[in-house]
Design goal:
The strands form three sheets. Strands 3, 4, 5, 6, 7, 10, 11 and 12 form an eight-stranded mixed sheet that branches. Strands 1-2 form a two-stranded antiparallel ribbon. A two-stranded parallel ribbon has the order 8-9. The radius of gyration is 23 Å and the shape is globular. The chain has three domains: 82 residues, Orthogonal Bundle (Arc Repressor Mutant, subunit A), CATH 1.10.10; 119 residues, 3-Layer(aba) Sandwich (D-Maltodextrin-Binding Protein, domain 2); 101 residues, D-Maltodextrin-Binding Protein, domain 2 (3-Layer(aba) Sandwich), CATH 3.40.190.10. Helices cover 44% and strands 23% of the residues. The longest helix is centred in the N-terminal third of the chain and has 28 residues. α1 packs across α3 and α1 crosses α4. The chain has 312 residues and is α/β, with parallel strands linked by helices.
Length: 312
């Protein structure tokens, strides 16, 4: 009889294209992953994975077994969710992920609220950009994930995931306090064409959208510094070495030595969502957290709107 944990290992290796990546995802050693695959090949009497310079990919037999494994693991997860539903939200593990700015603002309040109501449920939280989190959510490594996408651009969801909108998160321009435009209530993006820019790493969705917005305004931004920490970005702005677009979710931690202004026409807006797997049944703990996140999103949205009114 085929072993379920070994099927899960095979699926991870096939999806990730390497033994080391599968080991990291499963918190196994690489040798344990290799041994699990070797045992599974001995049990089935056939080669399941091919290895070459480009990595690891399933053979025809391996692909067929991975397809069955997806169904088997989905049924097991559904069975676990149904048993959880019978037992209620009294225990178990809820695995969550979030992008950084939501992890610093929305998630602490949501976790504190949830833990007060359901102290028996163990919670974990991982952090990363949406494009890193979404594939791991799809692979079953998380139960829920906070993601974002910009209006008018393809998002990170792809197939196999469903999302619930939580709030909209506009970007605003951060300027040094003594900047020539600091006294304006709103700034046009084209007024910043000759400025040095500070942004998140070039591969991040926020940085790509900032560049797209500048292109639409008719110029190529001159990026001087990159940081994925918005506190670092604010520090560089305060030092006078550039300007930046920062999301409203980071405004509760805004420095006193910079000014934040709205953009005209309206700023780029991120749509913040909470996502789960399309095929998986939602366990009671996950459903309870969804309800908490909806409430937190509404509360934060109201507070952020009042805060944003002060920068217009």
């Amino acid at each position: 009889m085929l072993n379920v944990p070994r099927l899960r290992v095979l699926r991870e290796v096939a999806q990730r294209g390497s033994f080391s990546a599968a080991a990291d995802a499963l918190s196994y050693t690489q040798s344990a992953v290799s041994q699990a695959v070797a045992t599974l090949e001995a049990e089935t009497g056939t080669t399941l994975l091919e290895r070459d310079r480009r990595g690891v990919r399933p053979t025809a037999a391996g692909a067929a077994l991975v397809a069955h494994a997806d169904g088997i693991l989905a049924r097991l997860e559904a069975a676990e969710a149904e048993l959880d539903a019978i037992a209620g939200v009294h225990g178990g593990l809820l695995r969550m992920a979030s992008f950084p700015t939501a992890g610093a603002t929305l998630m602490p309040l949501a976790i504190a609220t949830f833990r007060a109501a359901y102290p028996g449920v163990e919670l974990t939280l991982a952090e990363g950009e949406p494009e890193e989190i979404a594939p791991r959510l799809r692979a079953g490594q998380f139960d829920l994930a906070l993601l974002f996408e910009f209006h008018g651009t393809p998002g990170p969801l792809g197939g196999g995931l469903r999302a619930i909108d939580l709030l909209e998160d506009p970007m605003h321009v951060a300027l040094p306090r003594g900047h020539r435009l600091a006294e304006r209530r709103a700034v046009r993006l084209e007024d910043l064409r000759d400025e040095a820019w500070i942004q998140t790493s070039a591969s991040s969705p926020c940085a790509r959208h900032v560049v797209r917005s500048c292109h639409e305004a008719g110029f190529e931004p001159k990026v001087s510094f990159e940081s994925d920490d918005y506190q670092t970005v604010q520090g560089l702005v305060a030092a006078g070495v550039g300007v930046a677009l920062i999301p409203q979710l980071s405004l509760p931690g805004v420095r006193g030595d910079i000014v934040v202004r709205a953009l005209r026409p309206p700023s780029p807006v991120r749509r913040v969502t909470v996502a789960a797997r399309q095929a998986a049944a939602v366990a009671p703990a996950a459903q309870a957290m969804l309800d908490v996140l909806r409430d937190v999103g509404q509360r934060y949205g109201g507070e952020a709107a009042a805060l944003a009114a002060g920068i217009r």
